[in-house]
Design a protein that fits this description.
Length: about 325
């Protein structure tokens, strides 16, 4: 077919998770509830780390950035899905789809590097505690975060470089609720087998390589602790189990999507829900429920926000909240 006979695609249609209307209503309720929980949970982590001076350490600095990326990843896809389920208008512009793919891979690549930085932080804290503040200095934290965003942007640009030259003339339906790069490539009016393999190999190699690197680093940390003191092994494993859980939850779906040779639409949709709605809830829950400092700081911040919202006489303030009001505020009441 001659190139001039092609009709260029201007918008794409999402087939979504289900075409059954009652099921769409159920998905709408659950996705809205999950998204509100994601926003509140991750925003609370970011605000707690930002405003509590006791949490101004490398570990919590990296944790706050992880929550920020999780919040952005969810916001990139879930509000659009909620809008589509409520309105029934499940389309996205071609440029909007490209932008969604770009931001998605930028955030995903950044989170991979950020998890490596968190593993490095735990290695220094456990194996070199006397040099922790020297190695994990504020400058090093900024460099790690900048490196994470730089790698994410490079990875995203590299992925899109494979598809910028493709011509799209129809069909324009994506059997998902967001713009997924492998399914997007299949819409091109040309043979994309080689291109699909290159994209899968790129993301799959990065995901698998990073996952193995993290697991090896955790094993190395545990072996180092065991050689020095077998008594400290259980404590180190308790500390690292949180990070290992987050790593498995994040990389599991990525590896399955890009490495598994027999992909199915149903499994891909389930993993997408896991990536954008379940994991962003689990990450703040895993790190806060097992961390006494975070729980105390979040409780203190909640008390401060409640008292600043409604200031009343000191005699009527709940005793637990008196403890968490700053000294300057208490002096104002007395």
């Amino acid at each position: 077919m001659n190139k001039q006979n092609y009709s260029e695609v201007s918008e794409l249609v999402f087939l979504g998770l289900s075409s059954y209307r009652p099921m769409q209503h159920l998905l709408l309720a659950f996705s809205a509830m999950f998204y509100v929980t994601i926003v509140l949970g991750n925003l609370m982590v970011v605000l707690t780390v930002t405003f509590d001076p006791h949490l101004h350490t490398p570990m919590y600095f990296l944790l706050a950035n992880l929550s920020f990326i999780d919040l952005c990843l969810s916001t990139l896809t879930v509000p659009k899905m909620i809008s589509d389920l409520s309105s029934g208008h499940r389309t996205i512009s071609f440029q909007g789809c490209i932008m969604q793919i770009f931001v998605l891979h930028a955030l995903g690549g950044s989170e991979m590097v950020l998890l490596i930085a968190m593993a490095l932080d735990r290695y220094v804290a456990i194996c070199k505690p006397l040099h922790y503040l020297t190695i994990m200095s504020p400058r090093m934290c900024i460099l790690l975060l900048s490196g994470a965003w730089a790698v994410g942007l490079i990875h995203s640009v590299a992925q899109l470089a494979f598809v910028v030259h493709l011509l799209f003339c129809g069909p324009n339906e994506i059997d998902s609720f967001y713009c997924d790069l492998p399914r997007f490539i299949k819409l091109a009016c040309t043979d994309t087998y080689t291109l699909e393999f290159m994209v899968a190999a790129n993301s799959g190699f990065i995901s698998m390589g990073t996952f193995l690197l993290l697991i090896i680093s955790y094993v190395f940390i545990l072996l180092s602790v065991w050689k020095c003191s077998s008594a400290g092994l259980s404590k180190a494993f308790s500390t690292l189990s949180t990070h290992i859980t987050v790593v498995v939850l994040f990389f599991g779906p990525c590896i399955f999507v890009y490495v598994w040779p027999f992909p199915t639409v149903l499994v891909d949709k389930f993993l997408a829900i896991l990536d954008f709605m379940i994991i962003p809830i689990l990450n703040p829950a895993i790190y806060t429920l097992r961390n006494k400092d975070m729980k105390m700081a979040m409780k203190g911040l909640s008390c401060q926000l409640l008292n600043l919202r409604k200031i009343r006489p000191i005699t009527s303030v709940n005793r637990c909240c008196i403890v968490c009001i700053p000294t300057t505020l208490r002096q104002m009441f007395i």
